[in-house]
Amino acid sequence: MIEINKILYSTFFLILIFFSTNVESKILTTGNPDAKVTVKVFSSLTCPHCASFHNSIFNNLKREFIDKGLVKFEHHAFPLDLAALNAEIIVRCHGDNDKKFELLDKIYQKQKIWAVGSNINKINDSIKKIGSEINLNNKKMDKCLSDERVQDNILNQRIEAQKKYKIESTPTIIINEKKYTGSMEYKQFKKAIERKL
């Protein structure tokens, strides 16, 4: 009987996670939801190639396509370590979508500062310092970091992405469900999008 109750409890908990509408754990999206082109980027916030992609391509993409309503952009969390997971949690800690992307920019720009060392507490403090620049206070960030539902949601998204897209490296870019891996210059990226417009 106790075993059955454990199974029922576990099942209920998983259902709760699956149907959770916690705004802090949703996929980060910007741009026209009805755009003809959807760009999905699966990345780990501690991955140098992901930072390079974001810093060199995302801002151009935003200016030329996203802000003009031509592209919907989705940042999908694919954390490769605990530091990346915690950084994703802090990004989602902000209630304002624009601020989430502003924080994402700063996390990538300052990756070499915060994503170093093996002491997760020091790494968390460095991430929180960046979060405080976007008006997040320590109490709020600590609460977000201890929220297991958000952690589980992010990890479940990673598991689902792995199953669906067979991701082997980060960043992995999906443009209208076509997968692109490896390094891409903005010119190549732009051509790939323009072919689908």
Describe this structure in words.
The chain is an alpha+beta fold and about 200 residues long. The protein is about 55% helix and about 15% strand. A 5-stranded mixed β-sheet has the order 1-3-2-4-5, with helices on both faces. Strand 4 and strand 5 form a beta hairpin.
> What is the CATH topology descriptor?
Glutaredoxin
Described by strand count, sense and barrel closure, the largest sheet is: 5 strands, mixed
Biggest sheet, spatial arrangement of strands: 1-3-2-4-5
Radius of gyration, Cα only, in angstroms? 18 Å
Strand residue percentage: 5-15%
Question: CATH superfamily assignment?
Answer: Glutaredoxin
Enumerate the spans where pLDDT stays under 50 for 5 or more consecutive residues.
1-25
Q: Return the domain count.
A: 1
CATH architecture: 3-Layer(aba) Sandwich
Work out the oligomeric state of the chains in this entry. single chain
What's the overall geometry?
globular
Give the overall average pLDDT: 88
Pattern of helices and strands: HEEHEHHHHHHEEH
Number of helices: 9
CA-to-CA gap between the ends? 58 Å
SSE class: alpha+beta
